[in-house]
TrEMBL record:
Protein's name in the database: Crp/Fnr family transcriptional regulator
One Pfam family here: cNMP_binding
Gene3D superfamilies recorded: Jelly Rolls
Taxonomic superkingdom: Bacteria
Species this protein is from: Flagellimonas profundi
């Protein structure tokens, strides 16, 4: 949380009096490995800032999991459509390690958007980055082979390969665990 507040202060001119508003808005929560923070079918009422650990957002149709988002330290995770529109989620949110997260309720999220300019500027920037990231993932799925997607991930987010299980990594890349094992053995 400290690193996040420092970023807001340096890059978005977070004022000292607004810092206490920010600190009051977030609630520190410790989670255990494999603990669910949201189950599909429920409304996402919180967004999570990862202090320590890993959080994933994924769907599960009963036959196959599809990991849509991985959040490491100082990154946010939620079921975005559910959170913004306050509708039931098609996604699950799960801790992949024992983690410390800072949860921000929907009400506090809206309050920060209205009262803390540094938060609002940060939020707009994050939306733009998330759109770009998801657009890039769509492009990768349409135009790259599984090996090319793995290599791009190795270049851009090597911590994913180092810290995620093959099952989760394969579901993020949209390939089977067997294909991932073959690709890793050739790398």
């Amino acid at each position: 949380m400290e690193k996040f507040l420092k970023l807001l202060k340096e890059r978005y001119q977070l004022e000292d009096e607004q810092m206490s508003v920010m600190l009051d808005a977030f609630n520190k929560v410790e989670t255990h490995k494999n603990e669910f923070l949201l189950l599909a079918g429920n409304v996402a009422r919180k967004v999570y800032l990862v202090g320590e650990g890993i959080i994933r957002v994924f769907s599960d149709d009963g036959n196959q999991e599809s990991t849509r988002r991985i959040a490491f330290e100082n990154e946010f995770a939620t079921s975005f459509d559910s959170f913004i529109n306050q509708v039931p989620s098609s996604e699950n949110i799960q801790s992949l390690e024992d983690s410390i997260v800072y949860e921000l309720s929907y009400a506090n999220f809206r309050k920060l958007n209205e009262t803390v300019p540094a938060w609002r500027a940060f939020y707009i920037n994050r939306i733009e980055q998330a759109f770009s990231l998801h657009y890039g993932r769509i492009e990768a799925f349409q135009n790259m082979t599984a090996k090319e997607r793995f290599d791009a991930l190795m270049d851009n987010r090597p911590q994913m390969i180092a810290r995620l299980s093959n099952k989760v990594l394969a579901s993020y890349l949209g390939i089977t665990q067997e294909s991932l094992s073959r690709i890793k053995s050739q790398a």
